[in-house]
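Dear colleague,

As promised, here are the two records you asked about, laid out in our usual form so they can be pasted straight into your sheet.

NAME FIELD: protein one
SEQUENCE, THEN STRUCTURE:
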Amino acid sequence: MTPQDNSTYRQHDDEISLVDLATILIRRWKSMAVIFVVVVGLAVIYAFLAPRAYTYSSIYSVAEQSPGSALESPEALVAKAKNLYLGPVTRELLEETGLQALPFGVDIENPEQTLIVVLSSEAGDTNQELVNRVHQGVLDRLMQNQQQLVERRIRSMERQLANARESLAAVRESTSLGAAEVTASLMGRIAGLEANLADITQGEVGRVAVQSLKPAGTSRSLILALGIVLGAILAIIGAFMMQFSSLVRSSLKENG
């Protein structure tokens, strides 16, 4: 046999056909079944024993100076809540409970084209009380900040209204030629100020740490499906690895 023929023989000898692959899988079906059952079993155990997490959300409607116009932009409130309120609330709670860190995070955002601030956390049932206290602490600070802004705005507008009424009373006693025009202007200003005062609405809490109806994260059905797929893949890989290991041992025995 020429060197070229010998190389061709070795090449054909090393090739594995689909029949060979199928034969390996058939011969190793018991091992494959064990691997598959173990992996799927672990997936089932994890799916049903792993703690279920839920999304807890709180909603705050910002104070308005007129319908659809926020007294303070929701974006500014989100920035304050993240940078000024959340940290102190968290530290107070950690000192009180002795925890090193909260077992959940707090996301604060303003949905687009809305006048609300939403706080959300993903946590298990056992941490619901902690979530409620953190959210309530942040909401209380938001309410206090907004209340101060509303009171300042009302006081400012009441002063303007009082001044306008005093000016109107003085103009009505005047006999000047332009008194009528000034009177009309002042009455319009007074009406506008009164309307603006009536339009001011306080911020309010819509809900505090309300639990989602469905668990958050990966569902049990998806975990089971992934377990089945992973079990099948590992079973096939395991069968080939066992076959390879068997061939290596046989080769070592022959050469030994």
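NAME FIELD: protein two
SEQUENCE, THEN STRUCTURE:
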Amino acid sequence: MALPKIVSLFSGAGGLDLGFKRAGFPLTFAVDVSPAAIQTHQRNFKEATSVAADLEDLGPDGVLTHLENLLEPGESIGVIGGPPCQGFSRANTGSAADDPRNRLPILYLQIVEALQGKYDVEFVLFENVLGIRDAKHSVTFRGILSKFKEIGLTPDVNEYSALDYGVAQTRNRVIISGFRNEEVARRFKPAKVEASGLTVRSVIGDLPAPAFFARDLEKSAIPHHENHWTMRPVSKRFHQPGGADRAGRSFRRLDWDKPSPTVAYGHREIHVHPEGRRRLSIYEAMLLQGFPEEFVLEGTLSAQVEQVSNAVPPPLAKSLATAIKTAMRSSGRPVAPLEALSA
């Protein structure tokens, strides 16, 4: 039997999707509200059908309609994705329990419930920020776990650091997953990746200088990779004798010989390059997020900032996907044999 086909909700650029693809899961469908993110998805995942739509407008029935011609009734599927988490973010000092964005994980599970009526949903997985477990969001968080149980999925909640999975970044996130089979849930144990020397220098130290944004800049004029561009360094901070100092969230300067802090930005607030003379390029941020060199982001510079900062690091995603595959295989769930996956 083949691995479950993947339905990706709130897919973004597809960091989570890429990890599952690299673990051998077939991608079938992706949806995100950002047209630029879907352009990225279509460029990098040509085998999948991806659409730009607001899931709040689309709703469970709309997702089912899109899947009619992509899946046969009763097929085995897995649902992955990242409901927007700004409402739970500790960086958002004004975050409130009644933030409307906090409803999106429940919408995600309502869509899963609708999918269960037509397909065999083997597992569900999504990432969120650590703040989702804070006391002020406890009602919402308990509601999410209750919904998992209500729809017959055994939930698993754990914190993961990207640094433990081969990514040169100290990004800590909560992964919430649910499994149709209790044995699979018990056996789901993502393996950490043994890696040394995960520093900013080891990832981006050899890159040439990037291009600076200009309205008439052609992709062909961007060196090395079409995402290797950044904002022109106009702030006086960049022209100080030692470069931009490490001041506050807006001017967080990276250290060559340490991992990057969480690659998460405000509007165009990309971390400062270790040399202190400019901000990171989009491509440098992508590499620090664990994207492969051949991956390409589409859209405006601002859209690319949003996509890379919201993405799940693909190496972490692959470890999660591999753990699901291993748990399903060892518990007798429908999974292709090892030789088929490595073909």
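A couple of things worth noting about protein two: Residues 5-192+312-341 form a domain with the Rossmann fold fold (CATH 3.40.50.150). The chain is about 30% helix and 15% strand.

Best,
R.
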